[in-house]
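Re: beginner question about structure tokens

> Can someone show what the tokenized structure looks like for a real chain? I only ever see the sequence side.

Sure, here's an example I had lying around. Input first:
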Amino acid sequence: MIEYTRELLNSNCDLEFISCVVQRAHGNHKLIANKALQNNKEGKKRLVYDLTTERDFRGLFQNLLLKYQFDYELSWKFALEIIVKELKKIFIDSNIYYENKEVTDVYNNVAIHRLIIMDWE
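And the corresponding structure tokens:
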């Protein structure tokens, strides 16, 4: 659930965008949890989950960047913070955080990957 703080309400964020990203990720919490448990079973101590390559998120709101004047980087920041907060309720003592990773392809196109990282070592 999204907590609408003064900081969030007074920012230039797209609240509908944040709500949509959080709702879609909420449906993926079970998937993220299962992947973390599978990694643990395989002896791995870390999970890196890329939200931007998930089928539900690919291409999400591409036209909004041209249509509206919201701060989408800040909107992603708030959405990722909410997702991490919710995951910390499930994995109570694991180190869970988000990271934005820029990847440049051979044509110098830059893609930003929104990563959720869980470390339970």
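Each token stands for a local structural state, so reading them left to right follows the chain. The first strand starts at residue 46 and ends at 50.
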